[in-house]
Structure formats: C-alpha cells, structure tokens
Amino acid sequence: MKTTWRTASLVASAAAVLALTTACGQEAPPQADSQNVGATAGAGDYAGIGAGADKAGSGAQTSQSPSGAAGELAVSTNAELGEVVTDSLGLTLYRFDQDAAEPPRSNCDGDCAKTWPPVPADDATAGEGIDESLLGEVVRADGTKQLTVGGWPAYRYAKDVNAGDVKGQGVGGKWYALNPEGKKAQAAERPGLSTRQDPELGEIVVDRNGMTVYRFMKDEAWPKPVSACTGACLEKWPVVSPVAFEDTKGIQKKGYMTFTRPDGADQQTIDCWPVYTFAGDKAPGDTNGQGVGGTWYAVRPDGKPVGASEK
C-alpha cells in the first residue's frame, strides 16, 4: 500500500529593519558494495507500532517494532522539510551522519538500532517519485541486509508512530529525514520568530531554528523591559537577539521592541517581556524549559506565559 500526501511548503520571507519604540506597550562496522534492490518484487508490510517500539532489537520483526519490510517506497511532502522518503505505511525514513555512503556502511548497532530500527532491503520497491537506481543494500554486522537510498543506510525512528511523523528530524544533530536523492531533508527557511502548534502547550513562539522561546517570571516589562537573567543564567537561557518585526509571523506587534541589557547587548521582547531560548532544548520541538524552577515558561504569540499567571 502506498501512502502519499501533499501539503504546501511554507517558505517565509525575511525583510527589513526593526523600528524601535520609545516606550513599552507601543506598537512598534562490515562494508559491502551497494546493490540495486529497487526491482525486488513484492511489497512487505508489518504490524502496528506500539509504545514498546524502543525495546525492539536490530532486525527484530515484532508487532511493536517498525522494523518490518519497507514495501513500496513513496515520496511525501512535509510542510517544513519538503520531500521526504516514506515506507509503504507512510513512516519517514532517516539517515545517520555517522554512517557512510561511499561505500555504504552503518554505524548504528546495539541500543542505537533499537531506537533507530534499520529498514530491511528485502522487498523494498521504488514507488512514484523514487529513482530505482538509487536504492541499494548494505550488509550489517549481524549479517542482515539494510536498505540504502543514494548509498545512505535507511532507518525508521521508534517514536514515529503515525504516517507523516518526523520526530526524528535533527535528533542529536545527526539524524535527518531522507529526501528522494538520499540527501538530508532540510527545513525551509523560517521567519526569525514564528509560532508552532505544540500538542501539549498549544500555540507557542519559536525562533528561526524552530527552538522554543521562553519568558522568565522574574523579569519586568513595565515601564520598561528589565532582565533578571544575568551571568551564569545566560549560559542556560541565551537571550533572543533582535528580530525585525517584518521577519516574524504570527507574533503580536504591540509591545514588540528591543532593549539594551546592562552588558550592552540588545535583546528582543514580545509584549515588552524579554525572551530567551533554553540550552536544554536539543532539537526543534523540545520544550524542556517549560516550568523550570517554576519561573520559566514558553511564550504565546501575545507574550503571555503558557501555564503561568501574569504578575
């Protein structure tokens, strides 16, 4: 079964210079040569994926592991990443920066292969949008054959449970969805600040890299912005540097201004509140800073904290 879907690719345009306001609140292992497998007959399937996916070993095919046959590969268009390769159930395929493509080699074994199950080469076929000549295989340390795309070993991510999930994108700065050429699927250019819909927190602000933006409840906004995060605090909570309002999307304009910190650096505010990112967030979509110390909270487009009362 081939699963495809098309959504529009969002490309944000960046513009000009921010007009600063004068007062807060104003608007302002083994190696093997890659062999072509694209003509292999049959499209395999595998059973459903459950919460126990992380416990599946390399090459294991259980009812709770996304490690079954890939079946007919397809191309899906992700709103942020563009075209990505999926298996017959619509699950995203990934590549690992520590692998090699010339010649193909996988360096993901043991526990790694539990989180990132290798995609078997058996029964993988080229569907619409897939160049059959780019499909191949590599022999892994355990003797099984793993699918390659453009020479790169292909994996699924245990936390992707629904068609279209791309939760593995950017994990550890080493894992990326595969595009049809075997290259990394890359996020489209984002605005300097924009919003995303978080499944738990709702609509929150993110920076150009997709990292969550936060507020510190010990800061002040009126009559002028004041940051209480200084010294070692800034190592964990880097400030958001100025972003022109024209380079934002979905952010409230009122109170959107910058201020100069005591160290001379300029910092962005939303609704006059200083904003930051969190060093503990390692990948786009992380919200590890939410509620830290009962003083740090993700920010809504109007500058209000998520899950905390205003002063």
Automatic annotation (TrEMBL):
Pfam families the UniProt entry points to: Lipoprotein_15
The keyword Lipoprotein is annotated on this UniProt entry: yes
Region of interest (Disordered), ranges: 287-311
Signal peptide per UniProt: 1-25
Keywords, sorted A to Z: Lipoprotein, Signal
Keyword Mitochondrion tagged: no
Xref: InterPro entries: Lipoprotein_repeat (IPR005297), SCO0930-like (IPR047910)
Protein name: SCO0930 family lipoprotein
Organism: Streptomyces fimbriatus
